[in-house]
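Bench log, entry 3. Co-assembly request; chain sequences pasted below exactly as received.
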Amino acid sequence: MSGYTSDPRIRPQELLPWIIAIAAFFLLPEYLSLGARVLVYILFALSLDLILGYAGIITLGHSAFFGLGAYTAGILGAKYGVTDPFLQLLAAALAAALLGISTGAVILRTKALTLLMLTLAITSIVLEIANKASSLTGGADGLSGVQVAPILGLFKFDLFGRTAFIYCLVALFLGWLLIRRLLYSPFGAMLTGIRENTARMHAVGAPVYWRLVLVYTLSATMAGVAGALLTQVNQFVGLNVLGLEPSGDLLVMLILGGVGRLYGAFVGPVVYLIAQDYLAKQYPEYWYFGIGVLLVVVVLFARGGILGLVDQWWQALSRRSSSARASAR
Amino acid sequence: MILYVISVGLSVTMGLMGFINLAHGVFAMAGGFILSTAMARFGLPFPLAVLVAFVVVSAGSIVLERLLYSRLYAAGELAQVLFSIGLILISMALARLVYGNLAAPVFLPDYLRGQVHILGRDFPTYRVFLIMFSALLIAALWFGVERTRWGAMVRAAVDNRAMAQSVGINTRQLFMATFALGSGLAGLGGALGADILPVQWSYPFEHLVYFLIVVAVGGLGSLRGPFVAALLIGVADTACKYWIPEFGAFLIYVATMAILLWRPMGLFGVRA
Amino acid sequence: MRTIKIALAAALALSAFAAAAQTIKIGFITSYSGLNGNLGPYMERAVRLYIKEHQKELPPGVKIELITRDDTGPNPDKARQLAQELVVRDKVNLLAGVVFTPNALAIAPIATEAKVPFVIMNAGTAVITTRSPYIVRTSFTLWQSSYPLGEWAAKKFKTAYTLVSDFGPGHDSEEAFGKAFTAGGGKIVGAVRAPLQNPDWAAYMQRVKDAKPDCLMVFIPAGKTATAVMKNFADLGLKDAGIKLIGPGDITTDEELPNMGEVALGVITVHHYSAAATRPANKQFVADWKKEFGQNETPNFLSVGSWDGTALIFEMIKQQKGKLDAERSIEIAKQWRFDNSPRGPISIDPETRDIIQPEYLREVKKEGGHLANVEIETLGTAVKDPWKELQKKK
Amino acid sequence: MPDALRLSTVRAGYGETVILEDVALALPERGSLAVLGRNGVGKTTLLATIMGHTTFHAGAVFFGGRQVERLPVYERVRLGIGYVPQGRDIFPSLSVEENLIVAARPGKRWTLERVYDLFPRLAERRHHRGNQISGGEQQMLAIGRALMGNPALLLMDEPLEGLAPIIVEALLKSLERLLAEDELAVILVEQHAKLALQVTREALVMSRGRVIHQGASRELLADPERLAQLVVAQ
Amino acid sequence: MVASALETQQLCKSFGALTVADHIDFRLAPGARHALIGPNGAGKTTFVNMLTGAIAPSSGRILLGGEDITKVNQAARVRRGLGRTFQITSLFRKLPVLDNVALGIAERDGVAPRMWKPASKHKEIIDEAAHLLATLGLSADARTPVQDLPYGRQRLVEIAIALGLKPGVLLLDEPAAGVPSQDSGHVLDVLAGLPPDIAILIIEHDMDLVFRFASRITVLVQGQVLVEGAPQEIAADRRVRDVYLGEATHA
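Structure output for the full assembly:
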């Protein structure tokens, strides 16, 4: 929990994901393209966690920003010869931010199912636009031939996904730093306040609605960057980055990992995508059965997601050890 | 039009019970498969098979309700969403395992095929039948909900659950029955609609958005809301596809957005 | 940079080594799950069936290992990741499969970069084969069926209406048919693109009915959507109004015919394959299929594309005695002729690496109590992709 | 004659929060009890606990000789407890008549006709929706609804709250008639202490979740100073 | 004449047929210690909600420091110096006490939208919050999550948050409701120690507390002002007594 009384210093266990990622780079060189994909989704999930977990905005339309970012980068690289990866990222971020602020300002006065449907409608409309504007987006065939110049003029995206992995890892690391910083700032504390007790935030004079629009825009920007990363890694954009499915998948990943705990956004995509990848290789026609069971089990037995469960165990463990200590005395 | 019958069922469960049941399409799919099996394997006539679909799906839903759903009434909406998505995935895999890849074949009896001549134009018989049937169903539901003691009890339970208990209503049992009815309606819709919306294992996911739109636009906690919404969206969608087919796919979403921004609680929504 | 180059070289060396070990690894990517997950199995079964029946023809000691992967539908980034893994981790000698065009397009650069031949067994957008010199297609292009359909229709009908799904293949089909139909003197009186996920077709059918064309050309993705279209076509009385329903063979896929029922009778399509074709090779193919997978199962055009694709792979292996070299494999493909395909004699166009095949005019008729696409005329015995031909003329 | 209702050492509240502490009371059949006390002392919680709407921590509740504290709410209603909640809680989307019908339980004494006879205003308004009638009418409806269940015990939570004097008058008359004619025990929670004392036989004063006084209503009514001290200034 | 700190003119509110505020004229003087009492259903909560902007009046005006704020939204009223506590504790339950207070102070200071420097490095906010907690005797609980505090202390946090906003006018909605008797004295001490320049309106049932704290009392009955006056006057007023004991309605 972030706030005025929490220590913003990075705790040792927070380095764990990065150690694992770097270890994976050296130990599992064959899985790097899956790894890069996972990293992109973690960033995407982080952006969702910011609004869902910290500001309490429920959405099925986050893919609108992801997809817009992906297409912005893709169109620049394929049609306009803007091949610099950082320029592409920047443009994607801007485009997503613009969409975020304009849609957020309209829909954030609503709540629950209504908000869910509005976000869904928006991403569906964006999807239809992408499909219709096939001269720009390639329509359902996808946008191929996206040119991405070597990063810093040095590192070309290679077949093994090494560059992609490191590139995504660095992007994710920066995104994580940023979000972490944000969450520990007064702004983050304020967000927690809104989620915990919106009425109370009104009563201390916070312009809640505008703050929500702001955080929604920030989150959209980040999702846009994640989308652009996916484009750059694949040098291809397909319509599947938009619409209900990616939004739903993302939501599932995040809830699976644990909402509103920062690292839920790390655990969820890792578990989901790796489970999917593994199951799909074993049972290509029925793998989603396993995912379904996983979801139901999580809902019934681990309400706070996987990290919630870990927390419970941890607490039970420390209770037992403290009571053991107490009885020893 | 068949979406309406299915969605009315959803508005019963979701609206009355406040459970975000994304897995509603599962029951519709089950209805379609049961119909197909009843007709193909057991040679039941169409009307009987439809009835069987309704009954079996209702009964099955009670089991699910007791085992799973009832544990989640008090859970947050996120948990409900996640749970019902899980259920969708499981049911899709099972349906595929049992019924294979193809859509369930459904053949209408001859008397429902062809066209009827009304006011100098031809209309497909089955569609006319469906519209009439839905209208009858709605009328029956409306009567049931607005004019019977059972309906009054359901509405009372929706209005104020604690108070409903305080006048001696067993809300748990009532909700179970309501859930069964809602699911049964979905099964009925799936069965009746199988000719138009082919029933295949991917069904619950494919049509999810439509169900949600109908319920959201209609408004939670209302029975006529989803009906009106389904009609409105259905007619508008059809008209739009007829007049300006280039924008066919946009319309439904644009309309949804417009209505929800105009009336955030839906057309007839009562619950905040 | 240097390390990467070294790694790349090492990987290539490894893949060469793998070939020497006499096990040919085929990375097979198709769609098993998602909304179109029913399509993948039609492809995989054909591949497995071919391997099973022809295993003994392989050079001694050579074995084939089929590594299957699920791309979950039109999901190019997933497809690309899988292809990448297949190449890098599993060190496959060949890539194959793919239902959807975007997935094929996303994999193309990998085939190029890794120098791995990529046999496309379904995805039918014309442009695909131009995206990598390592791509060979054994399926079809939509132009191949829709263009001759247009030519044929122009001789029979004066006006036509087109209704296609609003995505790449739909656009291809609409354009190909339109070009041929108008070139032949016909007139397109209306063209509609419907959303890919469209539950109800009544509105479109009413629109068509009101336009009173002589024929309606439809292209929608294979599967149950086609059934819905047929039913709507009949329900709204277009059939009775004398409008002829025509289209590329995708709309009357063999396995869906039983579901369509009577409403499909009389539908005219042009396609390269019908399970009902009476060629001996096809009869054998269908009989083997039923024997292997059950009497109610029928192969379809996805199956035949995969069957022939596997035949091509066998040819590559046989000619190189189990040691596959990418460049050589492609050369072999370019020279490949296969007279014994279930769809009739086919070959690969050495210029485009795309398939050359016969196209048949078929009508849905009842045969022995079952509906079938009965071939009534051969429109061309060696049809090249008309799109590429037109591009050349420009 | 057994007590209609008996509570012994009841501890209850909402969730972990305990509001009632060690509450005991006994009410004979056809008895009437006024529960007095300032806002927030646990009067409403007491009624809610008898109904089963609270978290029951300890103690026992006997109704008609049966132990009921673990029974679900609707079972208690079926055994014969009627509830007129604070704020009336009329079902807004039901008509006046439907509000009565949903509560109907088999029994000889109370029917639609008799309720309409007791509250003629409701008969006039029978087809209006629950949210379309005035506060006083809602209060009548809430009482009528409780009676439709043919209760042996009626719990009334501030039935006079927010009503115009003339309606209070009418309601009190009905209430007195009810107590005189019907075989009914009543617990009346009321802020208007004197009114409550006038219509009841016994009274109980609560403070901070405990019973601080119990006795005959008449005695308290006769001792305004003690009443003021107990109820107002406590 | 000094402008009133808070004033209502002919304030009305009705829900359908039910009128819950009936032309209320009310004036809160600067620095006042004013109490609003009345039986249940008298419309006190509605009145407070109109003052804070949670609900809109049907007609009439509300003035804060002489300015019309009838149309100003809740948050903006707070920024103009109208603080409040809630009748039912409304806190950030999972957050530590210090954060509860600091969130408000940060809003007041305009620090809240800052995104970079960690919240815990904003010493000025934390110091102010800590100081405030110290004056209310809450220092020991600063790092305890609110939900782990006894209810009486939670009520103090409620007050602390409002004070952190440095309001010119403070509405205390039943500050002692639900506080066990042994702690209510402490609440009273805190109230007595509030800065004299803040105008305070207290809504309370605990007559003890009202009579000890307020220098002026308004009695609200059925949406109307029944009487207003000094505590002795109110105590002596027969009508007030009757309202509470149940005779007024017979009159």
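Chain A touches chain B through 40 residues (CB under 8 Å). The mean pLDDT of chain A is 87.
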